[in-house]
């Protein structure tokens, strides 16, 4: 070795992949899970989806889930009541990591706090999910039901 600093070749110099983090709430009441029907979002309007949102800078995934639960459906969730269910590396929008958490205890009754983006809330049995769902969410729900903690979607 000559002692010269190692220089990466062109392939090694690829820019780092930037990932958007999403959190998804499986609010469970017995064997039922709460979904909202999307509207006016420009993406999959009319589809049923879990209460969800993007991770913000400086925020843990649990803090993001608690914030989204309050913002979207008006329920208060304590950190100790958040249970991990699944993580999915999703190819949409260049790459996302979606974290799915189950909550069975919370304060308040779920209400639609974003009627401009959500036309309805509905409780669906985990073995009878709505017909029109966003694809990655439907697949993640299958993995959760099977106890699989990790998946890759769309790559």
UniProtKB/TrEMBL annotation:
Keyword Lipid metabolism listed: no
Cofactor: Mg(2+)
Annotated ranges, domain Nudix hydrolase: 15-150
Keywords: Hydrolase
Pfam families registered for this protein in UniProt: NUDIX
PROSITE patterns the UniProt entry points to: NUDIX (PS51462), NUDIX_BOX (PS00893)
Alphabetized Gene3D superfamilies for the sequence: Nucleoside Triphosphate Pyrophosphohydrolase
InterPro entries in the record: Nudix_hydrolase, NUDIX_hydrolase-like_dom_sf, NUDIX_hydrolase_CS, NUDIX_hydrolase_dom
Entry GO MF terms: hydrolase activity
Domain of life: Bacteria
Family affiliation: Belongs to the Nudix hydrolase family.
Protein name: Nudix hydrolase domain-containing protein
